[in-house]
Structures are given as structure tokens and as C-alpha cells.
Amino acid sequence: MIFDRRKTNERALRPRKSALVAAFALCIAANFASAQDTKPTVPDEWKLSVAVGPAYALGVAAETWAKRLGDPAGGGLPTKVYPGAALADRDPARELLALRNGAADFAVGSSLYWSQQAGGLGVVSLPWIAPDARQLDALAKGPIAERLLAVVEGAGVVPLAIAPLGHRELATRERPVRSPADLAGMRVRVGAPQLVELFTALGAKAGVMSYAEAQPAFAAGTLDAQEGTLATMATSRLDAVGFRHVVLWGAVAEVAVFAMNRQRWDALDDIRRARVRVAAAEAASELAQWVRKENESALTALRKRGLAATQLSVAERAAFATAARPVYDRWAAAAGADLARAAEAAVTGVTP
Q1: Would strands 46-49 and 79-82 be described as parallel, antiparallel, or unpaired?
Q2: DSSP H or E run through 333
Q3: pTM
Q4: How many CB atoms lie within 10 A of CB 9?
Q5: How far is it, in rounded angstroms, from Cα 290 to Cα 61?
Q6: Region of poorest pLDDT, from 5-14, 113-122, 278-287
Q7: Which of 328, 339, 158, 177 shows the shortest CA–CA distance to 258?
Q8: Is the distance from CB of 125 to CB of 252 less than 8 angstroms?
Q9: How far apart are alpha carbons 30 and 41 in whole angstroms?
């Protein structure tokens, strides 16, 4: 028998080659699994955040949008609405954060609250920049609307649509407010932290407190005024705690922003993306009508309950705007001077 060293070496190396092949295969499989794990996933049920329930126009818009998202024509994405900013620690100002971080897949919220995370949205709420409905409409369309949506995109989410959300008015207990002097010393409950600065500049003593905290203060007569939407005033039954006046002054405007989580958006194909965007646009277009009807209904209800409504004249509003000008300038600088000028240009020449 002749000893063949070459054949012997081949037999010795064969197990080692097999081990290397197996190791290479495992590496490929691991990399494939890792790629699969990092690929955006599509949930069985999508989550939509909104600050209010369907008793309000914004809540109706959320429900309508969710319904259309679930329809095949709207994307075929079964969506559940979470009202009360439940996905954002019950804080509307944290809703944009919740959307960006993935706690919510969709959200529709107010520019006033979202501006705390996306500062440029603050131009909509500049004091008396758009005190009339048509002026507010002008901020929700055209080039300025595109710039506002770009601000939202810069905050890390996908903007889909924008719509007018109305104005925040003022209810008072003892007397109507027609001039800055009438506000002097009034104790006012406000709904957003940045509004404290505005009311303070106008001579009032303003503070933020929850609805539960406000009730005993209203009952004890230690609050003189409440700012907010007409719908909120009507549902809060301010008449039951001694309020007798509501001032329609158009001080602070809001738009509603419809947006989606960036990772969820990336997981959709182009057809679904287009359908999601159309569903948002349709809900946004209807929201403007619902807000107008909501305000009309709320004002009628407040009047029936004994509250006298005072509509400020152009001259009276101008006096307030002059008194609030330092606040306007600070907010405009914070939002971006160029964006503020664009917003001013959009409303210039728009008649009530």
C-alpha cells in the first residue's frame, strides 16, 4: 500500500471546509434577519391622537379621518382614535412629540399647542394677526400654508393637511372687555402657557390651570375671566358659575394640522401614501365647515343661557393689538421673522 500525503491532507481539511461554509451561511442568515428586523412594520391597528372628543369639531375631524383611513380608498389602515391626548400624557402640547416618537401613528392637533415643539407654527397665533375668519382662512392655504407644513416636517413628522380651527375668545364674569384698561387686574384662566405672557402684557393676572382646578376657583369667585373657544365655553357651562359676558375679539387664531409618524409613512407604498394624504385633505376641508357651525351653535347656546356677546369693532381690536405689540414682536422673532412677514403678507388686504 502506497502512502499518498496529498489525499490524506484533503481528507483532513474536509471537516474544516464544512465548518467554514456553515459559519458563512449562519452569518448570511443573521444579516438577513437583522435587515428584516430594521424594516418598518405595518401594525394591525393604527393609532390616531387628538386632544378632544367628538363633541368638538376637531374630534369629529379625527373620527372622520380615521374612518376614511380604514376604508380601502383611504389606505385600508384600520385606525383607532385616542381622544384627550391620551397618547401624549393628556397634554396637547406633547402630542407632536408622541407622534414623532411613535406613540401615535397619526395626529391632528392645534397649531397653538404644537408650536411649543414646532416654533414656526406660532405665527398663526400672533396677537390679532388674523382676527377675522377670512384672514384665518388665508393662513391655511397657498404659499404660507406650505411653509407652515414645512415647519411641521422639520419637527420630524410627515405633514399631510392644514385647516382653519377658529379663534379663542374671552368670557368674563362682571363686565365686558372693550379696551385694555378693562382687563387691568382681572384674574384670567388661560389654556396654553404662552398666553400668560399676552394677558400679562394687557394688564391681567393670568395663569394656567386644569378644568378640575378651575371649578372651585370659579365657584368661589376668584377667577374673573376665561379664555378659550366658544365651544369650550358652552360645554363648560360658564353661565352656571356666574359668567355673564363673552367678548368676540379674535385675539388668538389656530389652525389644525394633520400629520403622520415618519417611520409609519416610510413603511407604506406610494399608492397608500397618496390615499392617506387624500383622506387627510378631505377631513381638513370639512373641518373648516364644522368649526363655523360649531361656533354658531355655541354662541347661540351661550346667549340662551344669559351671556351677552360683545363683538369688538376694528378700532377696539386695533387698541388691543397696539398694547400687545411687544408680545407680538417677541413671538414673531421666536417663530422666525421671515415666516412672520409671509404670514402678514398673506392676510394683508383680506376683508372680513
Answers
A1: parallel
A2: helix 325-335
A3: 0.87
A4: 10
A5: 8
A6: 5-14
A7: 158
A8: yes
A9: 19
User: How far apart are alpha carbons 351 and 132 in whole angstroms?
Assistant: 8
Domains defined along the chain, listed by start:
46-347 (3.40.190.170)
Report the sign of the C-alpha dihedral through residues 110, 111, 116, 122, in that order: negative
Neighbouring C-beta atoms of residue 27, cutoff 10 Å: 10
- Residue 8 predicted with pLDDT over 60: no
8 Å CB contact between 139 and 124: yes
**pLDDT score at 297:** 96
**231 phi/psi in degrees, rounded to 5:** -65, -40
DSSP readout, 203-251? T-EEEE--HHHHHHHHHHT---EEEE-HHHHHHTTGGGGT--EEEEEEE
Q: Which amino acid makes up residue 154?
A: G
The mean pLDDT of the chain is 89
Give the phi and the psi of residue 117 in degrees, each rounded to 5: -110, -25
**For residue 209, pLDDT beyond 90:** no
The C-alpha cell at 116 is 411649543
